[in-house]
Backbone:
């Protein structure tokens, strides 16, 4: 019964991750709150932290599957050709690399501090609320009214988006929201900013998950139940993310993002209220 309950909790967390990873509502924040609410724990003090990042890889794999045609195109046309032929694969992945630099540096410097002091429901709720207000302001002020949806980002735009991504070190801020708003400020359309955020998530989450596995001691340090839980959470988040990503892009082509900002505000108040009456441990 103990293992079955543990796996059931992993399924629930996989669903939460698959739904929230690419929406601007903070998947890490939702996972922290849900893990606390259902008392999800492992034998290692680092297991839950590592689990949070590893199951996010399932959602990232959904991006690889859904956008494989774009990835394949960048590999086939990797080297620059004649001028006017469009962005080469080398240029595209260079922008991804540049956008990863600021977060990579700050992540190494401040990730442990964030985990120590900010991975709790109260901090997450506070950040969700502030992030929601910021989204409402940013969409009104910066969201460009561009007809084109082509995913073509310059080095300068990539660097600016990378700086905005640094905010995602704070749980509850949302990597997706931060990079989309960074894309708006850089002059990208909502769809282009969102798709760039998808691709940017691939190296970021692979790197973070690898670091967390090393920190916990690798898979050999985990019990059978913990490994099975990881695999279940990974698979569930992958399936759910496959269903969510296309619908999210279709939504953004027609409607604004403020509905997600309003959700953040109400969800944050709900979490703070639950904390006041002692729901969280």
Residues:
């Amino acid at each position: 019964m103990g293992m079955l309950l543990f796996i059931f909790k992993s399924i629930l967390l996989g669903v939460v991750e698959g739904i929230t990873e690419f929406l601007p509502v903070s998947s890490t924040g939702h996972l922290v709150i849900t893990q606390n609410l259902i008392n999800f724990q492992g034998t290692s003090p680092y297991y839950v932290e590592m689990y949070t990042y590893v199951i996010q890889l399932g959602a990232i794999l959904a991006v690889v599957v859904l956008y494989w045609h774009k990835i394949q195109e960048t590999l086939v046309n990797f080297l620059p050709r004649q001028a006017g032929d469009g962005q080469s694969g080398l240029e595209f992945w260079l922008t991804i690399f540049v956008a990863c630099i600021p977060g990579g540096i700050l992540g190494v410097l401040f990730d442990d501090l964030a985990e120590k002091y900010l991975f709790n429901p109260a901090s997450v709720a506070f950040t969700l609320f502030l992030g929601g207000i910021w989204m409402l302001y940013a969409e009104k002020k910066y969201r460009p009214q561009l007809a084109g949806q082509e995913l073509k980002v310059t080095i300068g735009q990539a660097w600016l988006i990378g700086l905005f991504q640094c905010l995602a070190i704070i749980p509850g801020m949302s990597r997706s929201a931060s990079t989309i708003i960074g894309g708006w400020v850089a002059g990208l359309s909502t769809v282009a900013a969102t798709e760039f955020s998808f691709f940017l998530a691939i190296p970021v989450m692979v790197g973070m998950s690898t670091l967390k596995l090393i920190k916990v001691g690798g898979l050999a340090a985990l019990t059978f139940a913990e490994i099975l839980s990881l695999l279940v959470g990974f698979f569930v988040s992958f399936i759910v993310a496959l269903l969510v990503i296309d619908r999210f892009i279709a939504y953004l082509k027609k409607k604004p993002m403020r509905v997600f900002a309003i959700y953040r505000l109400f969800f944050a108040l709900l979490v703070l209220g639950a904390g006041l009456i002692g729901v969280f441990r």
Notes: Residues 89-118 form the longest helix (30 residues). DSSP finds eleven helices and no strands in the chain. Residues 2-276 form one domain. Residues 42 and 226 are 7 Å apart (CA to CA).
